[in-house]
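Why does residue order matter? Because the sequence determines the fold. Keep that principle in mind as you read this record.
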Amino acid sequence: MTGMQIVREETMRMLRGMVPLALIAFGVFVLAGCDAVRAGVSLLLGACYSLVLFRMIGKSAAKAALFPPAQGIRIVRRGYFFRYVLTGVMVFAAIKAPFIQPLAAILPLFFPKVILLWSHAVRRKGG
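Structure:
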């Protein structure tokens, strides 16, 4: 199995985990009295961005594994810096754009960590 096949599989697994989290978050925002359309669009944009970031991390790691260690480290660092700047731009845009609910757009950035922790806990517990 190649590195990109693993990235594709893990991205699909992440997508399957993000859908229920986004639905739960949407329900919480609606119950809290937020505008449903605004919260839904913001959650969708945030989840899509988070998924793209996850895929970029995987592609960077798969690419770095093909090179010698010193060059691989540079590839990973460059990708990290690029993703960090993109995330800063996304958070700034989420705060400044009037049609985006900032919390709903930023919350999905934490979904991959939650999904990875959950899957590790379930896998470890279940054998």
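Helices lie at 3-31, 36-64, 69-96, 102-106, 111-126.
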